[in-house]
Design brief:
This protein folds into three domains: about 1-65, no CATH class; about 80-130, no CATH class; about 135-230, Zincin-like. The chain has six helices and eleven strands. It has helices at about 40-50, 50-65, 115-150, 185-200, 205-215, 220-230, and strands at about 1-5, 10-15, 20-25, 30-35, 80, 85-90, 95-100, 105-110, 155-160, 165-170, 175-180. A hairpin with a 4-residue loop joins strand 5 (about 80) and strand 6 (about 85-90). It is globular and about 60 Å long.
């Protein structure tokens, strides 16, 4: 891992599947997949050769991120798979969280400015705590059940806080799931889990992979994939 002032944090990873240098662009950094035989120096030369287009895309992504940030206040509530979030101003000095009977209540001081990044960060830190807790309680067991139903095998299930992808699967058949999956309806959660289970059979997104996906979704993989794109992780 290294960093550059212009591009933010740059992460390098070796990939057996990569046939050429691949750069994924994020608002505050880059992730670079290196094929065997290429070096970080080669990658940096490639990145600098495309500097203008990369910086322009980062600027656009950052602007979109700012515009799409999920702001929470007493008039803005939302649902997760297992609980509803309700915010309430109270005569108190701190921010208090309580999950009871399927409702996550967030009480915050009357004087708090809900538009401030600090207050929003407090809200989301608390919400994320309970999302992670619920995800650890539910998602590994759901993965085991779907694997059993469709004849897949995997090694482990890990719950992560990824905001760049809903899930991933390694060549060792270790499945990573973002706890933000709990912001999706249950059938799309199953779709993501099945997607990663299918990667235990096919690590790419070729025709064989999508045949597996059609098999486990009653030929609805394209429909479900399209619907998933309508959901965004909170910014």
């Amino acid at each position: 891992m290294t960093s550059a002032i212009d591009f933010g944090k740059i992460e390098f990873e070796r990939s057996k599947r990569a046939k050429q240098i691949r750069v994924r662009i994020f608002p505050n950094g880059l992730k670079v997949s290196l094929p065997y035989g290429s070096t970080e120096e080669h990658a940096m030369k490639f990145i600098h050769s495309a500097q203008d287009s990369i910086l322009a895309k980062q600027k656009k992504l950052h602007k979109n991120e700012q515009n799409n940030k999920t702001k929470l206040d007493e008039d803005q509530t939302f649902k997760t798979l297992t609980f509803n979030v309700v915010l309430s101003r109270k005569a108190r000095k701190d921010i208090f969280f309580s999950l009871k009977n399927g409702i996550l209540t967030i009480e915050f001081p009357e004087s708090a400015d809900c538009k401030s990044e600090e207050v929003q960060a407090h809200f989301w830190n608390g919400i994320n705590y309970f999302l992670r807790k619920e995800a650890k309680r539910l998602l590994p067991d759901r993965t085991k059940q779907l694997a059993k139903d469709f004849g897949f095998t995997f090694s482990t299930v890990k719950i992560q806080s990824s905001k760049s992808r809903w899930g991933s699967c390694s060549r060792e058949k270790s499945i990573n799931l973002s706890f933000y999956l709990l912001l999706l309806p249950s059938y799309l959660i199953d779709y993501v889990i099945l997607h990663e289970l299918c990667h235990t059979k096919e690590m790419n997104h070729g025709d064989k992979f999508w045949k597996w996906m059609d098999k486990v979704t009653d030929n609805k993989s394209k429909e479900l994939r399209k619907e998933l794109k309508n959901y965004n992780m909170p910014k």
